[in-house]
From TrEMBL:
May be involved in the metabolism of insect hormones and in the breakdown of synthetic insecticides. This is Cytochrome P450 3A13. The keyword RNA-binding does not apply. GO terms for molecular function: heme binding; iron ion binding; monooxygenase activity; oxidoreductase activity, acting on paired donors, with incorporation or reduction of molecular oxygen. It comes from Atta colombica. One of its GO terms (cellular component) is endoplasmic reticulum membrane.
Length: 351
């Protein structure tokens, strides 16, 4: 007979996967819906998500006023549905504070130790049927607060280093995947970038100074995140009134900033659905490109993300050539909390 502890953990896992699947469907449909609403009604409109009404802002002058205002800093309430899986880490936190790392890691070790204790195999024959049943009921009751209380403890120390590292690594993984696919589709861009790599490094080891000097690589990075921002939407709940050019957003108002739609808006971008890294060689409106957010809550790891991703890409293009059939219109994405590629096939050839 399967141990009740294993069954409990299995059920929790299945519920988590079910939740992510629902979130994936809802978020993907939401992006499409918002895009359609913006095209029909313009820069300032509203959408209803569940029981909440969101004001959708796509005009740079408008969302700049929100994201750079202290009253536009609060986001925990609008990401509440993620709490069951993410807890109150850096993705949901409204105030960026540095956690006490020692306490953070001790807190995690205590919980992991307790979980390990419950899922460790037991010697058979130690219990009668009644004792075994009572023991398993005790486990179920003790497992419940472990899953619930973990994120309460994370709340106490706010954002710890592990959370920051996880979020950055997640961004790097998805950004690198999208970049390699763009290079596989646009082989001319891939070859141009490979030439820049050869000129910059030849056969030398990679170093930060020369990575930062690679202008074309950075343009490829920017254009990839323009078309495929890892975080496609930003949401906030206002903690005070914010005055825009055309109206005043009241305290308590929910605001949504659809990065995905802004980055593909033909008002701000020439041929917005095409992959053209060179567009970043000239100046543009500062606030029409916001893959890492902006203002008080912008991503603190964006330079690190670029350097990490650049290191991976340089090493890959030195050794391999990437090719895929299809074009940009064939790219399929999925969304749970971040934008991800779906059903990708590439051919890789050693140079």
């Amino acid at each position: 007979m399967r141990n009740v502890t294993e069954v409990t953990l299995f059920v929790v896992l299945q519920l988590s996967l079910y939740f992510l699947n629902i979130l994936n469907i809802c978020t993907s449909e939401l992006i499409d819906c918002i895009d359609a609403v913006i095209k029909k009604y313009g820069n300032l409109t509203r959408v209803i998500v569940g029981t909440d009404i969101f004001i959708v802002l796509t005009k740079p002058e408008d969302y700049k006023l929100v994201l750079t205002n202290v009253n536009g800093n609060y986001k925990s309430s609008v990401t509440q549905t993620w709490e069951a899986i993410l807890g109150d880490g850096i993705i949901r936190a409204s105030v960026t504070t540095v956690g006490i790392q020692g306490i953070a890691h001790k807190d995690e070790r205590d919980i992991l130790h307790k979980q390990k204790e419950y899922i460790s195999p037991r010697k058979p024959g130690n219990y009668t049927a009644l004792q075994y049943n009572n023991y398993n009921m005790t486990i179920i009751q003790e497992l419940k607060p472990i899953f619930y209380n973990y994120y309460d403890r994370v709340e106490q120390i706010r954002v710890n280093a592990s959370n920051k590292s996880y979020d950055i690594q997640n961004t790097i993984t998805e950004a690198t995947s999208f970049t390699m696919l763009m290079l596989a589709i646009h082989t001319d861009v891939q070859e141009k970038l490979r030439q820049e790599i050869l000129v910059t490094f030849n056969n030398d080891k990679i170093d930060v100074q020369r990575l930062l000097s690679m202008r074309y690589l950075y343009m490829v990075f920017q254009e990839t995140l323009r078309l495929f921002p890892v975080v496609p939407l930003i949401s906030r709940q206002l903690t005070g009134d914010i005055k825009l050019e055309s109206c005043t957003l009241p305290e308590g108002c929910y605001v949504m900033i659809p990065i995905f739609a802004i980055h593909r808006n033909p008002m701000y971008w020439y041929k917005p659905l095409e992959f053209i890294p060179e567009r970043f060689s000239s100046t543009r409106h500062r606030y029409t490109y916001i893959p890492f957010g902006m203002g008080l809550r912008d991503c603190i790891g964006q330079k690190y993300a670029f350097l990490f991703m650049a290191t991976i890409i340089v090493n890959l293009l030195r050794r391999f050539r990437f090719v895929t059939v299809g074009n940009l219109n064939d790219v399929k994405t999925t969304t749970d909390i971040v934008l991800r590629l779906q059903h990708v096939k590439m051919s890789i050839f050693r140079i």
